[in-house]
Fold these 3 entries.
Entry 1:
Amino acid sequence: MRQEICIDRVPGETRVALIEDGVLSEIVIERAEARGVTGNIYLGRVRNILPGMQAAFLELGLERDGFLYVEDAGGPHPSRRAESEADAPPPGEPPVASSPLPRTRIEDLVKEGQEIIVQVAKDPVARKGPRITAHITLPGRLLVFLPGVEHVGVSRRIEDAEERERLRGEVGRLAATLEAPGGFIVRTAAAGLAAADLEPDARALVETWEAIGRRRRGASAPRLLHQEADAVERTLRDMLRAGVQEVVVDSEDLLEEVRGLAGGPGVQPAPAVRRHEGELPLFESRGLQLQLDRALRPRVWLKSGGHVVLEQTEALVAIDVNTGKYVGRAGLEETILRTNLEAVREIVRQIRLRDLGGIIVVDFIDMTRAADRSEVLQALEQEIRKDRARSRMLQISEFGLVEITRQRSRPSLERALCTVCETCGGSGRVRSIETLRLEILREIRRRRPRAGAGSFVARVHPMVAGALTGGRAALAAAAGLDPDRLVLAADPELRLDQWSLLGPDPA
């Protein structure tokens, strides 16, 4: 599989895209006025404690206070409770404990007014403030540093048992040599590397933590102690790995910056770094803008003619698979299986591209044969392994439903690029013209017995006025009025489903 990274920057926005075999698979978008805070480290002050929720709110100097759950406030570090499931345990996303932990109360861990060093685990979403954790993690390209934790872990994506033990020993000795005030997790990119290759990464992470400590001394909360890297540095650190053949940028400034970040241990051979040439902008010339636009639509068409529908709600993401125009050739069961298998790859790509997180429910087309369900599940598991985000998947049900939980730290693509519609309030629906007509009718009939002899004036959106004009006489008759006593007034200041009724004064 050919992998490329394209970086596009205009004043106010940076976009970093991962392309796999010419298809946009992941994208990171960072805007200057809305830069995320995930990964930032703050000196926070406990504002209040909520024993009923087993959580505390900390003042961080942001628009909203941070939310600290009891499991993120103290006790064993997540890496001590379970081995890392991915390259790095992202802040606030601890693996599930392998055994029950003693019950600890939030009021035993923090006190009001106390100052604590915390890290943002999830950006603020809607009316919720950022989720924070006291379990700090500092990610590098090859290692993740765990301050204050005497532990060395290895990513589960490194499956060879001998290599895992070798890396654990190498990093353990390296931590002792550096007298590191904490432990490390070995990332996938470190597979096959010697201690000499890992040492610069380890040393840089330890120095970063020591710099945070120096900023902490003498500081008072709330204060930002460490800001996570920007989109370019962060994405190259996490995405750039062996197998990325090329990095293309759209400006001379980016070219120099990326050359300084690309290559090094874990990325051999180093990818070619070049500047985009041509009249069309980088994303347009590669067809990435079109793919990005399509990622904001609820329906995604498959090559066979089937389609996938993705809907985000407050509680979960629902994904539905349909055969659409695809009728197959070998029979119904074979048609369903082919459609589901084709949908698997597109579903995982869309999950990665749209950065969907939380609970995801996939409704595959019902399969009656157990062998078909097993084949689809295996294909889904295989595709999910390509995803850098940590996720868990349950077995497929007899009705074709699969539940996936996926780590979420930042708003999804849709929420990052779109805003709630002022007309529908985000529901995607407005009341129909017939509904509006009936509402106006009922209001006239409610007022008519107490009204005088004047006219009723219904102010509506111009589109609604145009649709109702032909039936004005019938509407007046249904309301018990003479036709000349009902006036429809078009008001472009109104939203599509807004209306008001002005009636005559009571007699």
Note: The two ends are 81 Å apart (CA to CA).
Entry 2:
Amino acid sequence: MPRIDATLLDIDGTLVDSNDAHARAWVDTLAQFGHEVPFERVRSLIGKGGDKLLMQTAGIDKNSPEGKRIDKARAERFMRSYLPHLKAFPKARELLVRMREDGLMLVVATSAKKAEMDALLEICGATDLVQHQTSSEDAEKSKPDPDIIQAALETAHVAASAALMLGDTPYDIEAARRAGVDTVAVRSGGWDTEALDGAIAIYDDVADLLSRYPDSPLGRRRT
């Protein structure tokens, strides 16, 4: 197996238990604008960019006047009502420390807005550990398109063959695959093993991955 030099990090559902909160913020905001969408429908799309979620749930272009109003209201609602209650998954920071000690570069590759990304990194104690960051503002198309993964690779000056993605959704896996990057997945975001098909390894959560780190792709592909 080729040696890896960087881990591309998703945050929501991977390092922070936030996927349900994102879904509720979308459901509440869509209802505010007269679009009743079931929680389960929204929840199944968390991990995709907001542009795709808005189109697939309400048929609204995010760049339209209504789309811009909804997007702004959703972001404000999430930051105000949901973010203060979020917690990192157990051992999230410890896993990041282990990877840094192992010589891995840590690069955020998230569909979240930059303000949300910064706040979520603070929650999981990762601000001082992450070396590069890419968010929705750095990519023309959101996950599962590969743009964010490609932007992360370019920002870190790392080849796709020298990186692994750590994520929790099928959209992470697809985006990474389309950029030529393999994915290590965790089930903590709400998707089961079948839904995460395509990952080269799957763990319950970051604590499970840390406990088996030496034999994981992250550990084995550093030697």
Note: The first strand starts at residue 6 and ends at 9.
Entry 3:
Amino acid sequence: MTTRRARAVFAVTAVAALVVIIGLGFGMTFFSDEWAFIESRSLGNPTTWLPAHNEHWTTLTILLYRALVETVGIGSYVPYLAVVALLHVAVAMLVFALLERTSGPWLALGGGTIVLFFGSGFENLYWGFQTGFVGSTALGLAAMLVTDRGPTRGRAIAIALLLLASLATSGIGIVMSIAVGVEWLVDRRWRRWVPVLAGPAAVYAAWYVAYGVAGITTQRDPFTLTALLDVPGFVVSGFANAVGSVTGLPGILAIALGGLAIAVGVREALRGRLLGRVVGVFVAVLAQYALTGLVRAQLFDGQVDYARYTYVTGILVLVGGSALIGRPGLVMNQRWRPVVLALGAVWFALAMLLNGILLVAGRELFLTRSDMTRALVTVALDPAPPEGAQMERSLVLVPAPVSLQRIVAAYGDPRGDALVPFAVRPIPEPLLVEATRRLIEGAAVPGAE
């Protein structure tokens, strides 16, 4: 397949994926963390732009999200889904470009298509709040793409600015900065430009001292022996998830394949062909799960399996794996070409099957979450609240009823959807009963002991 044809096929597939993802999101509404941006952040109040959201620096995400709230309100969730879907397609396009440079059009088309329908990361496709994770990933991948063009002063500064923007979008910016920084340290061409990256690192450090330190222990103190002991198992499980997400292989086989890739990388290093991109990605994936394990491992069961994290690490594994493979000469060898193509077809089929299943399963999960949100909002806005209702107490997944009343008056009612009213399903009666109970007795705080 020629490069031009692969690009054309991918472009058509990207448009189709955009339509499919937005369409699958019809009927969803605002969930959990989003309400913090709706309730507590303000486009017109700069003092709300810098405080951490949990442990994340989210200034650019706040500005983007609040721009949507101020312009389109909260009467429809479709605009929020459209923005995160557009960012996701941008991520897939960057992955395609990176894979095309390292492994040619065949692998770029296969890998890019898997990312387009990346059900392994469904939280970042169906949750408007995840413009943060997806945006940070896109900015980091853009920095990698500029890195591929070779070192110059202008490119070094551009990359530093991209990484600074990634850091100011979510904590995933740390992971992407590690990937690029380690690659520069390994790559002799870029090594002399590493001091340029001290700029974004210093800005992030200043933000952390001023704001981040107050947010990082909100959920859990990471500076304990218990937190450290959680890290190794968290990293191994996370690495298996990342490899499995882009290969379709189950845990033990994913770990075996990842181990094989590490062995190949070590062999190349011993031969004097240490690949900066491969090392950078590997360290970044380990750092992602190590940091997440430190901060969040004890909050909920199954944290390591959360799709929001697999989205980032799976994509990094795909980019690093492509760099390790390089341009496979076997495809051009007539004797081995049928075998290589068959293996490639099996890989693509397994990965697409897994991600398709998770894409559908994730949709149902978020629709169920939307049912709960609408139930809580419904009882909170009831003009005749039940006896014993605590109208000033947070419902955790949504703000306190008195706050919700102000939000709805200012920005619209999220119980329906002004753009796709037909997609909103009736609220199950048991959820209304549970929402009423929470209004009276209080809602449990996730992760609280």
Note: The mean pLDDT is 91.
